[in-house]
Design a protein that fits this description.
Radius of gyration: 19 Å
Number of helices: 12
Order of helices and strands: HHHHHHHHHHHH
Shape: globular
Largest sheet: none
Strand content: under 5%
Number of strands: 0
Helix content: over 70%
Amino acid sequence: MDNLAHSEIFALTLVIGTYLTSLALYKKVHISLLHPLLTTIFVIIVVLEVLGIQYESFQQSSHLIHFMLGPSVVALGYVLYEQIQYLKGNVVSILTSVFVGAIVGIVSVIIIGKLMGADQALIATLQPKSVTTPIAMGIAEKAGGIPSLTAVIVVAVGIFGSIVGPIVMRVLGIDSHIAKGLALGASSHGVGTAAAIQIGAIEGALSGLAIGLMGIMKAVLVPVIRLICNYFSI
Protein backbone atom coordinates (compact mmCIF):
# COMPACT_ATOMS: atom_id res chain seq x y z
CA MET A 1 0.00 0.00 0.00
CA ASP A 2 2.94 2.33 0.64
CA ASN A 3 3.87 2.15 -3.04
CA LEU A 4 0.34 3.13 -4.06
CA ALA A 5 0.21 5.94 -1.50
CA HIS A 6 3.23 7.61 -3.08
CA SER A 7 2.55 6.68 -6.70
CA GLU A 8 1.79 9.64 -8.94
CA ILE A 9 0.57 7.30 -11.69
CA PHE A 10 -1.93 5.71 -9.31
CA ALA A 11 -3.18 9.09 -8.05
CA LEU A 12 -3.59 10.59 -11.52
CA THR A 13 -5.23 7.44 -12.89
CA LEU A 14 -7.64 7.30 -9.95
CA VAL A 15 -8.68 10.96 -10.14
CA ILE A 16 -8.87 11.36 -13.92
CA GLY A 17 -10.29 7.89 -14.56
CA THR A 18 -12.95 8.26 -11.88
CA TYR A 19 -13.96 11.70 -13.12
CA LEU A 20 -14.22 10.67 -16.77
CA THR A 21 -16.25 7.59 -15.82
CA SER A 22 -18.50 9.68 -13.57
CA LEU A 23 -18.95 12.26 -16.33
CA ALA A 24 -19.96 9.59 -18.84
CA LEU A 25 -22.43 8.12 -16.34
CA TYR A 26 -23.91 11.56 -15.57
CA LYS A 27 -24.40 12.37 -19.24
CA LYS A 28 -26.19 9.07 -19.70
CA VAL A 29 -28.57 9.13 -16.71
CA HIS A 30 -28.81 12.90 -15.95
CA ILE A 31 -29.42 12.31 -12.24
CA SER A 32 -28.39 15.31 -10.13
CA LEU A 33 -27.14 13.18 -7.25
CA LEU A 34 -24.71 11.54 -9.67
CA HIS A 35 -23.01 14.83 -10.55
CA PRO A 36 -19.48 13.86 -11.65
CA LEU A 37 -17.81 15.98 -8.97
CA LEU A 38 -19.88 14.42 -6.20
CA THR A 39 -19.38 10.91 -7.54
CA THR A 40 -15.64 11.42 -7.95
CA ILE A 41 -15.22 12.71 -4.39
CA PHE A 42 -17.21 9.79 -3.00
CA VAL A 43 -15.34 7.14 -4.99
CA ILE A 44 -11.91 8.56 -4.08
CA ILE A 45 -12.81 8.67 -0.38
CA VAL A 46 -13.98 5.05 -0.49
CA VAL A 47 -10.85 3.89 -2.36
CA LEU A 48 -8.51 5.68 0.05
CA GLU A 49 -10.35 4.23 3.05
CA VAL A 50 -10.37 0.69 1.68
CA LEU A 51 -6.67 0.82 0.75
CA GLY A 52 -5.74 2.57 4.01
CA ILE A 53 -4.05 5.48 2.23
CA GLN A 54 -3.66 8.68 4.22
CA TYR A 55 -5.03 11.78 2.51
CA GLU A 56 -1.76 13.68 3.04
CA SER A 57 0.15 11.02 1.07
CA PHE A 58 -2.47 11.01 -1.67
CA GLN A 59 -2.37 14.81 -1.87
CA GLN A 60 1.40 14.78 -2.34
CA SER A 61 1.24 12.17 -5.08
CA SER A 62 -1.49 14.11 -6.90
CA HIS A 63 0.38 17.44 -6.78
CA LEU A 64 0.33 17.67 -10.58
CA ILE A 65 -3.44 18.15 -10.50
CA HIS A 66 -3.06 20.99 -8.01
CA PHE A 67 -0.37 22.51 -10.22
CA MET A 68 -2.68 22.45 -13.24
CA LEU A 69 -5.16 24.70 -11.44
CA GLY A 70 -2.87 27.62 -12.29
CA PRO A 71 -2.82 27.05 -16.07
CA SER A 72 -6.57 26.41 -15.99
CA VAL A 73 -7.15 29.90 -14.58
CA VAL A 74 -4.94 31.35 -17.32
CA ALA A 75 -6.97 29.41 -19.86
CA LEU A 76 -10.13 31.13 -18.58
CA GLY A 77 -8.38 34.46 -19.11
CA TYR A 78 -7.64 33.57 -22.72
CA VAL A 79 -11.28 32.58 -23.28
CA LEU A 80 -12.28 35.97 -21.88
CA TYR A 81 -9.83 37.70 -24.21
CA GLU A 82 -11.42 35.97 -27.19
CA GLN A 83 -14.81 37.38 -26.15
CA ILE A 84 -13.50 40.83 -25.18
CA GLN A 85 -15.95 42.56 -27.51
CA TYR A 86 -18.79 41.65 -25.19
CA LEU A 87 -17.20 43.69 -22.40
CA LYS A 88 -17.27 46.91 -24.40
CA GLY A 89 -20.19 49.02 -23.27
CA ASN A 90 -21.10 46.55 -20.52
CA VAL A 91 -18.39 47.24 -17.95
CA VAL A 92 -20.60 49.28 -15.61
CA SER A 93 -23.49 46.81 -15.75
CA ILE A 94 -21.15 43.86 -15.18
CA LEU A 95 -19.44 45.46 -12.17
CA THR A 96 -22.77 46.61 -10.74
CA SER A 97 -24.44 43.22 -11.05
CA VAL A 98 -21.55 41.35 -9.41
CA PHE A 99 -21.29 44.02 -6.68
CA VAL A 100 -25.00 43.76 -5.87
CA GLY A 101 -24.76 39.98 -5.95
CA ALA A 102 -21.86 40.04 -3.49
CA ILE A 103 -23.75 42.28 -1.06
CA VAL A 104 -26.94 40.21 -1.29
CA GLY A 105 -24.96 37.02 -0.75
CA ILE A 106 -23.28 38.35 2.39
CA VAL A 107 -26.28 40.13 3.91
CA SER A 108 -28.67 37.23 3.26
CA VAL A 109 -26.36 34.86 5.14
CA ILE A 110 -26.21 37.26 8.09
CA ILE A 111 -29.99 37.76 8.21
CA ILE A 112 -30.88 34.07 7.81
CA GLY A 113 -28.14 33.05 10.24
CA LYS A 114 -29.36 35.49 12.90
CA LEU A 115 -32.98 34.42 12.45
CA MET A 116 -32.04 30.76 12.86
CA GLY A 117 -29.83 31.38 15.89
CA ALA A 118 -26.47 30.63 14.24
CA ASP A 119 -23.36 31.86 16.04
CA GLN A 120 -20.89 34.29 14.53
CA ALA A 121 -18.39 31.57 13.62
CA LEU A 122 -20.94 29.72 11.48
CA ILE A 123 -22.09 32.93 9.81
CA ALA A 124 -18.48 33.83 9.01
CA THR A 125 -18.01 30.32 7.60
CA LEU A 126 -21.00 30.68 5.27
CA GLN A 127 -20.46 34.24 4.03
CA PRO A 128 -17.92 33.44 1.29
CA LYS A 129 -19.92 30.43 0.03
CA SER A 130 -20.02 31.67 -3.58
CA VAL A 131 -16.30 32.43 -3.88
CA THR A 132 -13.72 30.05 -5.29
CA THR A 133 -12.32 27.77 -2.58
CA PRO A 134 -8.83 29.25 -1.88
CA ILE A 135 -10.19 32.80 -1.55
CA ALA A 136 -13.25 31.63 0.41
CA MET A 137 -11.10 29.81 2.96
CA GLY A 138 -8.94 32.90 3.44
CA ILE A 139 -11.99 35.16 3.89
CA ALA A 140 -13.56 32.74 6.39
CA GLU A 141 -10.37 32.47 8.40
CA LYS A 142 -9.94 36.24 8.66
CA ALA A 143 -13.60 36.65 9.65
CA GLY A 144 -13.37 34.06 12.42
CA GLY A 145 -15.00 31.21 10.53
CA ILE A 146 -13.97 27.58 9.97
CA PRO A 147 -11.97 27.36 6.70
CA SER A 148 -12.25 23.57 6.32
CA LEU A 149 -16.04 23.73 6.63
CA THR A 150 -16.11 26.66 4.21
CA ALA A 151 -14.32 24.51 1.61
CA VAL A 152 -17.02 21.82 1.88
CA ILE A 153 -19.80 24.42 1.64
CA VAL A 154 -18.20 26.06 -1.40
CA VAL A 155 -18.07 22.74 -3.25
CA ALA A 156 -21.69 21.99 -2.33
CA VAL A 157 -22.85 25.44 -3.44
CA GLY A 158 -20.95 25.11 -6.71
CA ILE A 159 -22.52 21.77 -7.54
CA PHE A 160 -26.01 22.95 -6.56
CA GLY A 161 -25.69 26.15 -8.59
CA SER A 162 -24.33 24.40 -11.67
CA ILE A 163 -27.33 22.03 -11.65
CA VAL A 164 -30.13 24.39 -10.61
CA GLY A 165 -28.83 27.64 -12.14
CA PRO A 166 -29.42 26.80 -15.82
CA ILE A 167 -32.89 25.46 -14.98
CA VAL A 168 -33.87 28.62 -13.08
CA MET A 169 -32.64 30.87 -15.89
CA ARG A 170 -34.50 28.81 -18.46
CA VAL A 171 -37.73 29.01 -16.43
CA LEU A 172 -37.32 32.78 -16.00
CA GLY A 173 -36.66 33.20 -19.71
CA ILE A 174 -33.18 34.70 -19.31
CA ASP A 175 -31.61 34.64 -22.78
CA SER A 176 -28.68 37.04 -22.34
CA HIS A 177 -25.33 35.30 -22.77
CA ILE A 178 -23.70 37.82 -20.45
CA ALA A 179 -26.34 37.41 -17.74
CA LYS A 180 -26.08 33.63 -17.82
CA GLY A 181 -22.31 33.66 -17.56
CA LEU A 182 -22.18 36.23 -14.77
CA ALA A 183 -24.88 34.45 -12.78
CA LEU A 184 -23.18 31.06 -12.90
CA GLY A 185 -19.70 32.41 -12.18
CA ALA A 186 -20.77 34.76 -9.40
CA SER A 187 -22.92 32.20 -7.60
CA SER A 188 -21.20 28.88 -8.33
CA HIS A 189 -17.52 29.81 -9.02
CA GLY A 190 -15.46 27.14 -10.84
CA VAL A 191 -18.13 24.44 -11.00
CA GLY A 192 -20.62 26.98 -12.35
CA THR A 193 -18.06 28.11 -14.90
CA ALA A 194 -17.68 24.53 -16.12
CA ALA A 195 -21.45 24.45 -16.64
CA ALA A 196 -21.34 27.87 -18.34
CA ILE A 197 -18.66 26.70 -20.78
CA GLN A 198 -20.94 23.82 -21.79
CA ILE A 199 -23.69 26.37 -22.56
CA GLY A 200 -21.47 28.54 -24.74
CA ALA A 201 -18.13 30.32 -25.16
CA ILE A 202 -19.52 33.73 -24.16
CA GLU A 203 -21.14 32.33 -21.02
CA GLY A 204 -17.90 30.56 -20.10
CA ALA A 205 -15.79 33.69 -20.59
CA LEU A 206 -18.07 35.94 -18.53
CA SER A 207 -18.40 33.28 -15.86
CA GLY A 208 -14.62 33.18 -15.51
CA LEU A 209 -14.58 36.95 -15.16
CA ALA A 210 -17.30 36.79 -12.50
CA ILE A 211 -15.19 34.39 -10.41
CA GLY A 212 -12.39 36.94 -10.10
CA LEU A 213 -14.68 39.91 -9.54
CA MET A 214 -16.71 38.11 -6.88
CA GLY A 215 -13.56 37.00 -5.07
CA ILE A 216 -12.19 40.55 -4.94
CA MET A 217 -15.49 42.14 -3.93
CA LYS A 218 -16.27 39.64 -1.18
CA ALA A 219 -12.73 39.90 0.20
CA VAL A 220 -13.33 43.63 0.58
CA LEU A 221 -17.02 43.63 1.53
CA VAL A 222 -17.06 40.88 4.18
CA PRO A 223 -14.87 42.78 6.69
CA VAL A 224 -16.60 46.09 5.87
CA ILE A 225 -20.09 44.67 6.44
CA ARG A 226 -18.84 42.94 9.58
CA LEU A 227 -17.63 46.29 10.96
CA ILE A 228 -20.99 47.89 10.14
CA CYS A 229 -22.86 45.06 11.87
CA ASN A 230 -20.63 45.36 14.95
CA TYR A 231 -21.11 49.14 15.03
CA PHE A 232 -24.90 48.81 15.03
CA SER A 233 -24.74 45.71 17.29
CA ILE A 234 -26.47 43.55 14.68
